[in-house]
Specification:
By secondary structure, this protein is an alpha+beta fold. The chain is built from six helices and four strands. The longest helix is centred in the N-terminal third of the chain and has 13 residues.
């Protein structure tokens, strides 16, 4: 979908503050309220805007450990990718999961209360998933940048 400059502006503003009123949004992008609302509605209905959410500071709610786990499946496990994906979807501590090309099959972003909680998750759930051959875990020491905003201004 090609976005015009107004739609890009709408997306940039909503990514920063989804609670902004439609009148303030319209003022900021230089449109009247009705055309602005129609554009937002079209972006939602087309799936460009998937949903509006609240971003929670994981540290402030006590989720201090962030781990990136690289998962390699056995040859047999690769035949059942859907099973692995379904199992991962049911583990709430896994907040992101990507299929990769290369030496590993998946990259997981995991948040837990502490490293001991990750260790328990690792031994009781992750390492027991069907077809898992190897898991390499990297603990994030600090967070330099964390953004959910996509650079829509770069799109054609």
């Amino acid at each position: 979908m090609r976005l015009d400059r107004y739609e890009k502006q709408i997306l940039e503003i909503l990514q920063e503050d989804a609670r902004i009123s439609s009148s303030e949004l319209a003022d900021r992008i230089g449109l009247s309220q009705s055309p602005c609302w129609r554009r937002v509605n079209m972006l939602e209905q087309s799936g460009v805007i998937r949903k509006r959410v609240v971003l929670v500071d994981r540290n402030k709610v006590g989720l201090r450990a962030q781990v990136f786990a690289q998962v390699k499946l056995s040859a047999h496990g690769r035949a059942n990718l859907a099973d692995f994906e379904a199992a991962i979807a049911d583990i709430s501590e896994v907040i992101e999961c990507y299929v990769l090309m290369g030496t590993v099959d998946f990259l997981l972003r995991v948040v837990t209360v502490d490293i001991e909680a990750y260790e328990k998750l690792f031994f009781e759930k992750l390492s027991r998933l069907q077809g898992v051959q190897e898991i390499t875990s990297s603990i994030a020491l600090s967070e330099i940048k964390n953004s959910t905003a996509l650079p829509v201004h770069l799109t054609p």
